[in-house]
Amino acid sequence: MLNRRTLLAGAAGAGALSFPAFAFGQAQATDKRLLVVVLRGGLDGLSAIAPIGDPAYAGLRGRLAIARSAALPLDSTFALHPNLSKMHALYRAGELLPIHACATAYRERSHFDAQNVLETGGVRPFARTEGWLNKALGALPRSRPEMGMALSAQAPLILRGPTPVSTWSPSTLPDVNTDTMARMLALYEARDPALANALESAMSANAVAMESGAGDMNRVGPRAITPLAQIAARFLKDENGPIAAVMDVGGWDTHANQGLEQGPLARGLTSLDDGLDAFKTEMGPAWANTMVIIATEFGRTAAPNGANGTDHGTGAAAFLAGGAVRGGRVLADWPGLSRGALYEERDLRPTTDLRAVFKGVLADHLRVASTALERDAFPDSAAARAMQGLISA
Questions:
Q1: Are 160 and 186 in contact (CB under 8 A)?
Q2: Which of 20, 35, 48, 53 lies in the 20 to 30 Å Cα band around 200?
């Protein structure tokens, strides 16, 4: 339970906040929670979820092919990267659903354009200015002042729109002592109640974040996943916290020296693995009602380039995780890796529309009405029907 003493104790300059009215004590409409993790830079899906059973895999991937003996088996075709051992345990527990050969409607290779399409749910870059998650949250009963939260200094495009959301990010400024904060609050309460409410709500949110005992908040790129995931869990499991949260993590653009079981990608996957595990631990019993979406803007070329890396591609990989997921299987209409099967003879061919996955999660997990999904969140997506069977119960 939060009280004034708790708020002041946790508010000493630990985070940068943008809270128009983060308030506690609001009615709760649902116990379902959603975390969206956007991996910026284009994750190499053929390394994260290696199709070791495809007869063309080893020859096509060459020095980037993961050995069957090292990979973590999923089924007769697919295996996880060796550094995803905790996610493999989730898979065995039925709480991880790897998705392969997936993509948005975008088919070019610009990071900026692809991320725009991924986050807006549209069919063309910059055709929309609002994010699909914001629009979906707006279709739910307004049970709290902010329905969504971004673990970043600014709300990413996926959360922008008319539905109120908030942000939290680590502060680079020196801590402010509690006495100063108390004096500021008292001053605002005497002179400007609206400003006092804003400060108090920001202090409340900061207290929630810092109670997590999160680790080093000065990390960047994939190494930031674990501390941010712990804080995301603190917000999401609070009975009056946001329904959905978003983390976006850069560092997945592996053009050179990508590595195999060692290297930048392997280290990034280890951080992703640790971060998801930390999120589950921090969520505690609320994990049972939680869904995590891990997605990236596009995949990478099927064959390595001359710099021991991979270039921008098309077909990607994604993950659903959580106690609410019907996992323990791989979701893929696998197109194969033979030369003729590749998209433009260089990329994994996408066969699953990510919008169908997102719509299925929103419809069956958060209970967003189909009319709102088709009209507001994902217009022009009639061909990508909401995928069913993603939820465990």
A1: no
A2: 35
